[in-house]
Specification:
There is one protein chain. By secondary structure, the protein is α/β, with parallel strands linked by helices. Helix content is 37%, strand content 17%. It is built from twelve helices and eleven strands. An eleven-stranded mixed sheet has the order 8-7-6-5-4-3-2-1-9-10-11. Strand 6, helix 7 and strand 7 form a beta-alpha-beta unit. The radius of gyration is 19 Å and the shape is globular. The relative contact order is 0.12.
């Protein structure tokens, strides 16, 4: 199938770069000074997303709950029957916010950096743990559906098992996990090593099996090689053009962690997507020149070389392999599994 025949099904929308926190691992601080779309432009974008058949909008930031345009955007998307989710740090999740989210059936992804106050606050700042707990309690009382999200990094990877246990205890639909990328405020030191990432996932998998609970790992398709699909899914559809990332200014990004802009929705979403799909960069992403170990890998059709953003950051190309791929780090994988089994 040619790139031109692809129709995006989902949009990840960094609605605003502003935030009420200064987390040390934040990739989105790059957008703090970006002039975001005006309300009329946001509503026009949602109109065009509906016209193009987009069925899902993942709203993120920054912190979406502090955006004064959020409610009107949720209302417009709801009127079209478009499913919406909100990624939030939960610091300002009160009864009023919960009422709005419930009214427009918005799903919540709540950031939680492990199971311990000291780890969470080292990453997200003093006082954030108590506000997180209050926010989760508001959500539970309101009966809202939610998942938790842990960004796996070098500070919290040993807390992965306890994080899964806490998410299950809170009644989260699932415990999501995503590796930190060394972009924005995140230094290379806070990004997990391959062994730290695998240690986190294998310890989380062990708890998931014992609880019969579900874990969803984002942006790590090579994880299929090492984790049990009965308890852990690996999500990423970026290489097929099914998901489009939009920044606060309306630029379509090759990936929300890469400052590669391939069109702008102010001239129309359909035209911007056309420019995006016809770009040299997207052609390379969707048609990677796989080499070993990817070329002979049994998950190459679904993985397609893994995360092309990580590949670009480390290897300066979009072809893979994903720097976190277990097949190029089998010795680290073996050591990590041994460590989990001994603990």
């Amino acid at each position: 199938m040619s790139n031109d025949a692809v129709i995006p099904q989902a949009v990840i929308w960094i609605m605003n770069g502003t935030c009420n926190l200064r987390c040390i691992h934040c990739y989105a601080n790059r957008f703090i000074d970006v002039e975001e779309l005006k309300l009329e432009e946001k509503l026009k974008l949602i109109d065009e997303l509906a016209e193009c058949g987009v069925s899902y909008i993942g709203i993120t930031g920054g912190e979406p709950l502090i955006n004064p345009d959020l409610e009107q955007c949720l209302r417009r998307a709801h009127d079209y029957g478009i499913e919406c989710s909100i990624n939030t740090n939960a610091q300002c999740l009160d009864e009023k916010a919960a009422e709005v989210l419930e009214r427009y059936y918005a799903y919540l992804f709540i950031s939680m950096e492990g199971s311990r106050r000291e780890v969470h606050e080292r990453i997200r700042g003093p006082g954030t743990w108590d506000k997180l707990m209050r926010g989760i309690e508001v959500v539970r009382r309101a009966g809202l559906s939610f998942s938790t999200v842990m960004t796996i990094n070098s500070l919290n990877y040993l807390d992965a098992a306890e994080y899964v246990e806490l998410a299950e205890r809170f009644g989260a639909d699932d415990a999501c996990m995503i590796p930190v990328m060394p972009v924005g405020r995140a230094s290379q030191e806070i990004a997990p090593s391959t062994s730290q990432l695998i240690t986190a996932l294998k310890s989380a998998e062990s708890v998931a099996k014992s609880l019969g609970y579900w874990i969803n790992v984002w942006c790590y398709v090579p994880g299929k090689l090492i984790i049990d699909p009965r308890y852990i899914s690996t999500w990423a559809d970026c290489r097929r053009g099914r998901v489009v990332d939009i920044d606060p200014a309306g630029d379509i990004l090759l990936c929300d962690i890469l400052d590669i802009r391939l069109g702008n929705v102010k001239g129309g979403f359909r035209q911007a997507v056309k420019e995006y799909l016809q770009s040299r960069e997207m052609n390379e992403v969707m048609n990677p020149r796989l080499r070993e170990p990817c070329k002979s890998c049994n998950v190459r059709e679904s993985c397609m070389g893994g995360c092309y953003a990580r590949s670009y950051i480390i290897f300066k190309n979009f072809d893979g392999p994903d720097p976190y791929c277990p097949r190029i780090n089998m010795d680290l994988y073996t050591k990590a599994v041994d460590q989990v089994q001994k603990s």
